[in-house]
Amino acid sequence: MSIGLILEGGGNRGAYTAGVLDVLSENNIFVPVTYAVSAGACNAMSYLSKQTKRNYRIFTEYAADKRYSSFRNLRKTGSLFGFDFIFGELANELLPYDYKEFNRTSMKLIAVATDCQTGKPVFFDNEDIKESLKPLIASASLPMIANIVEYKGYKLLDGGVSASIPIEYAIKQGVTKNIVVLTRDKSYIKEDKPDFPEFILKKKYKDYPALVDAILNRAKIYNAERELCYREQEKGSAIVIEPSQPINIKRQCKDSSEMERLYKLGYDDAHKKLVDINRFIALNSG
């Protein structure tokens, strides 16, 4: 029976996920398939390459770097995040990514992006990522503050628009036992209030009405996905790792001390659940 790992996005809230993944890595817990969105997909790359602490260093050393994220990037390139820097100098020189390990691993990564034409999620695997890093860039390309990414005939944006927590897709693929990492605490309910007014979204994406509808309905979809995670946990088909206290930072937080705190929170929360995680895996493997 295959066990899946589900990783929510959330921008720099991903520092929490980085802490969780390092606990899994340090304890040699590597699941066959990871379904991940946005920052979760970027975190997953270092998990698959078994580079413990790499994500920690990204969040604590580079989240405040203007090349990583800034309005200067937005003005120059159309994207708040400096993807050329993140997947260029950062990945190749400053904190080199182990592409050899990624290329030979048997673990699968399924990265989620949103099809602008349909407003539905699209799923890309290791082979797509080996061919191009565009699926990762698309998965993290937030509406209004990032460019549409064109790949394999698709026009793509942030996977969180259509599938912030892709557990339903995992179950449909036959992966019915999942470890879920959320970046919001259990009390969180997403408000039905888009980040940008409807008229601005309709003007910006006038050629993509289905995308606009997906953005406007995101809260409903997101809250339903969270409820599914908890239902799966109640019946023993999932184990949910979530912040033990509310995370109130902005998606683009640049405070390195806050990134450190979030990482430690994720690390500590996962460590406290380590016995349960190992038991869950033992019961559902084989």
Structure commentary:
- The protein is 49% helix and 14% strand.
- By secondary structure, it is an alpha/beta fold.
- Strands 1, 2, 3, 4, 5, 6, 7 and 8 form an 8-stranded mixed β-sheet that branches.
- Strand 3 and strand 4 (121-124) form a beta hairpin.
- Helix 1 runs parallel beside helix 2 (39-48), helix 1 packs antiparallel against helix 3 and helix 1 (14-26) packs across helix 14 (256-272).
- The model has no long low-confidence stretch (mean pLDDT 95).
Quick synopsis:
By secondary structure, the chain is an alpha/beta fold. The chain has helices spanning 14-26, 39-48, 54-62, 71-77, 83-94, 99-104, 126-131, 134-139, 160-163, 167-172, 198-204, 209-216, 218-234, 256-272, 274-284, and strands at 3-7, 33-37, 108-115, 121-124, 149-151, 154-158, 177-181, 238-241.
Q: Provide the β-strand percentage band.
A: 5-15%
Give me the number of helical elements.
15
Report the principal-axis shape: globular
Helix content: 40-55%
Number of strands: 8
The SS-based structural class is alpha/beta
What is the element string, with H for helices and E for strands?
Answer: EHEHHHHHEEHHEEHHEHHHEHH
Largest sheet: 8 strands, mixed
- Mean pLDDT score, rounded? 95
End-to-end CA span: 5 Å
Evaluate the radius of gyration: 18 Å
